Amino acid sequence: MGTIIPTRQRNKRDWMKNLSAVIVANAAAYNVTPLQAGSLESAVTLFSDALDVVLDPSKKTTTTVAAKNAAEANAEALCKVMIGAIRPNPDISDELKLAAGIPPEVKPMPVPPPSQRPAVEIVSVAGRTVKIAIHDSGSGTRKRKAIGAASAQVYSYVGETYPSDPSLWQFAGQATRSGYEIVFPDSVAAGAVIWVCAAWSNRRGETGPVSVPISTNVQGGGVNSPSLKIAA
């Protein structure tokens, strides 16, 4: 809020006088009462007159500077109240805000759910721990997320053929980096076929399309380079 008001004395006065003039001329449009508009006008006028005094070397004294500082602080405080009331008000048009020297608020655009499927690769299998890499399918690198993606939702399934029903997949966790590990429980037999897929998610938790499921086999121990089965 404070950065809207110029810091240089003369520029500050010019900005305040403009704010006061447009509000006095059209107080109703700014949702300001005549009493509030009059108080602002009086405060700005007092500051302007006090500034003229100190700008005259022959009149600049400790007393006149103190009076100017007090008038300036009072006028600036009222201006900040006006900014706080006018700037976020959706009923006041951007044109009116700009005429008063108050830039409209810049509202961030919502980030939609990612529209691309991620690419998922199985890096290694160590016992029941499966390490995967998730990245933008069009980037050609294992480290890059899709535009608008904050993380990836990872899912797994144990069985010879993965299901088309999304509710049958097990949520395996949220990956914030390219590398992610899934640890399958002891109840999953050695050699069992496991499937993995993922979907990008934005910061609001909205997900995009799911990747093509890929599979490998849970091993009994050791690190293996899995042969991947990629679904058609």
pLDDT < 50 runs, ≥5 residues: 222-232
Give a count of the beta strands, DSSP E runs of length 2 or more: 10
- Radius of gyration, in Å, reads 32 Å
- What is the second-level CATH architecture of the largest domain? Sandwich
Strand portion: 15-25%
Mean pLDDT: 90
Structural class: alpha+beta
CATH superfamily of the largest domain: Immunoglobulins
Overall geometry comes to rod-shaped
> What share of the residues lie within helices?
25-40%
Outline the structure in words:
The chain has helices spanning 9-25, 34-55, 62-86, 94-99, and strands at 118-126, 129-136, 151-158, 170-175, 179-183, 193-201, 207-210, 214-217, 223-224, 229-230. The protein is of the alpha+beta class. The protein folds into 2 domains: 2-99, no CATH class; 118-225, Immunoglobulin-like (Sandwich), CATH 2.60.40.10. Strands 3, 4, 6, 7, 8 and 10 form a 6-stranded antiparallel β-sheet that branches. Strands 5-2-1-9 form a 4-stranded antiparallel β-sheet, with no helix packed on it. Helix 1 runs antiparallel to helix 2 (34-55). The longest helix is centred in the N-terminal third of the chain and has 25 residues, at 62-86. The protein is rod-shaped. Residues 222-232 have low confidence and may be disordered.
